[in-house]
Structure formats: C-alpha cells, structure tokens
Amino acid sequence: MLLSISGFKLGSNSKSVFKRSVPDGSWKRILITGIIIFLLVFGGLELFWRVNGHLPSVVDDYDLWSYYRHRVYDNGVKTVVLLGASRIQLDISTGMLKKIFPDYLIIQLAVDGRQPIAVLKDLANDKCFKGIVICSMFAGWVGKENLYSQQDYVKYYHENSNPFKRLNRLIMSYVQEYFVIVDPYLQLKRILLKYKESGKLPGPRYLITKRDRSRMADYSLINVSEQQKYRIKRIGELYKKNPPMAPKEWLKHAAKIGRYVKRITERGGKVVFIRLPSTGKHWELDNKFYPKKEYWDKIASVTGACTIHFQDISGMKQLVCPDTSHLDYRQAPLFTRVMAEEFLKQHIIEVLTKSAPRFPAAKPRGIGAPRIGAPSRKATS
Q: How much is the pTM?
C-alpha cells in the first residue's frame, strides 16, 4: 500500500527518499579546513589585541587561591607564603624573589581589598604548615572588624575545594596567561557596550594578574593625578568613618594576633609583618591617625613577630607610589631586592645551600613614579 505526501509516493520499498546527502570531498579535508579557519580567526583576534597593547591576565578566583593554599606544604620549611591585600600583590615581584631565593617555594595568598588575619589564623591552626609567612600589615587592620575579611576564601578551600577543581583551574590559568582573547575583559558584550558608550574599543587594562596570583600595575596607562585624588579622598573618608582605636586598646587586639604567630613559630616556622609603602598625602594621613611610634613600633613586642617598616629601610622610603598606595611594575623588582636583603639581615630567610643568594640587577628607572605618557608596555612580555 502506498501513501502519497506532497506528490511523493512512499512505501516499504521507497527507502532512498530518506537518505541524507553526503557532501562531496573527504571529511578529513573538511575538518582540517575548519581548524585552519578557527586558527586564523583566533590568531587574528589575538594579534589585533596584542598590537593594541593588551596583555593576558589570569582570572583570580576562589579556585585559583585554593590551588595555591593547597601547595603551602610542598617545600616544608623552605616555603614562603605572602599574605596581605593589593599592596603585597603589586609591590613584590615574585619573579625577582624566586631568582634571589631559588631554593624556596613562593606562594601568593594575598586578596585584593581584604585584610589577611583570617588566613594567618588558618595557617597557624594548620599543624602541617611549617613555612615562613611574610604578612603585609597595617596598624588599622588590627581589630575585630577585620578578623574575618578573608574568611570566605578559607572556608571555600576547606569545604569546596577538591583535586579536580584545583587541576581544572590550573589548566585554565595556563590558557589565560598565554592568550589575551580568552580574557573576560574582552568579551564581545563588553566590547560592544564600551563602543556604544564611547565610540572606542576597550584600552589595555593597567592591572594584570599573573598565574601565580601576583599582579603588575602600569600607571603610565591611566591618569595618575585623578587616581591620586581618588585615593586621598577615599582614605580620608575611611578614617572619618572608622577612627583609630586608642593605643592601649589596640595593643590588646594586637596581642591576640600574637597567638597565631606563636603557633607557627613553635612548629619551626617564622612570621614577619611588613609595612609596605604609602607616600605623599596618603602616608601623612596614615601616620597622623596611626602614629608609627605609638602603634607599629610596638607590634613586634606584643606579637613576637619580626617586623619591617618601609620608613626604617634605606632604599624603601625613597620609592614613590604613583597612586600614593601601590608601586608601579617598573619599581617592584627594585623594591623586592631591597626587601630580600633585609630578610637576610634579619635571618628571616636563611640560605640553606652553599651558593649565596643572587641579586639580579633591577632597572634604574624603577626608583621613582612613572612619567605620564611614558612608553607603553606594548613591547613587554
């Protein structure tokens, strides 16, 4: 029996009607052509953004932080963990530190805009950790309101992180470090919105995050004067909103932090608090509300930690923060060298091999703030 549909007669013997047509040519050739087209488009876009000054930047998230938190045991006592906020991410060149101390594993656990006490406590309570903690500290961070600032990172690591997530994030971080085109900053939606608003494509970002979670800031790419005004206004508002504690009360809170220092040192580890540079009006406000003599100079005695203040070290206090609070990437290697020398003087990092630490030369132009309109970083790698 036949069934007629739109002029076609279908029946049990009409199998050829449903046969899918196969394109002429080899599937292998089609696949290779598709791959070539993809690579040309991908490569073209990558080259376009590179030529326009963009650099790859790694997405810094809970999983990347957890990957490095998990590695604090890998090198035993020769592990250096960096804690703090944006200053220690920007001011310390981890590349330079690794060159000077090649036998040490450098772990960056700082979190932008967050105080590090929760992570210091977490390491203190971790009986397996026996390394060295370099903690960026500011007198105003001592207090109950800052104890849990980074606690969500600690909680995520202990409750949500697992080997699969860490491995997946590590692979993605390699991809993000080498290719600009995968950066969310250059998503099509954002590009179109930016072009609609200003008639321009997004310019290079001045903050770049590396795979090891360190960061670099190129202040030649922004209006430094406007950034300075913003910083000074913001810090002034913060001091008015959160006036400093009286020195006696502050000392009580600082002493509580000393418990975490003691736990680490009793296991053979070390803890050093370092006051990283702020300059100009910013430093004047910092020292006005938290006078160094009344606060910082007493932190060592109540916590038992080693301390380093940039005002006390020749070579640190001469540096100029372009935005009054952070160093430019051109300055970070020089600052790191000076800091490494201080680590050796205070026996914070011991040389455990016969070879003495090397101090690679830093570019002399790093001593001051970058000029507005200085050469772009296009040529940097």
A: 0.84
| Domain count along the chain | 1
Longest Cα–Cα distance in the chain: 104
Query: Distance (Å, rounded) from C-alpha 245 to C-alpha 134?
Result: 25
Q: What's the mean pLDDT when you consider all of the chain?
A: 86
CATH assignment of the domain containing 194 = 3.40.50.1110
Please state, in angstroms and rounded to a whole number, the distance separating the CA atoms of residues 110 and 114: 8
Residue 381 belongs to some domain of the structure: no
Q: Give the model's pLDDT for residue 357.
A: 65
What backbone phi and psi angles, to 5 degrees, belong to 77?
-70, -15
Q: Is 32 a member of any domain?
A: no
List the domain range (segments joined by +) for residue 331.
Answer: 39-368
Query: CA 273 to CA 120: how far, in whole Å?
Result: 11
Does 379 have pLDDT greater than 70? no
Whether residue 7 is contained in a domain is answered as no
Helix (H) or strand (E) holding 26: none
Burial class of residue 163 (count of CB atoms within 10 Å of its CB; 0-12, 13-18, 19+): exposed
The CA distance from 276 to 137, in Å, is 8
Residues 6+ apart with CB under 8 A from 29: none
Q: What are the tens digits of pLDDT across the range 280-337? A: 999 999 999 999 999 999 999 999 999 999 999 988 878 899 999 999 999 999 999 9
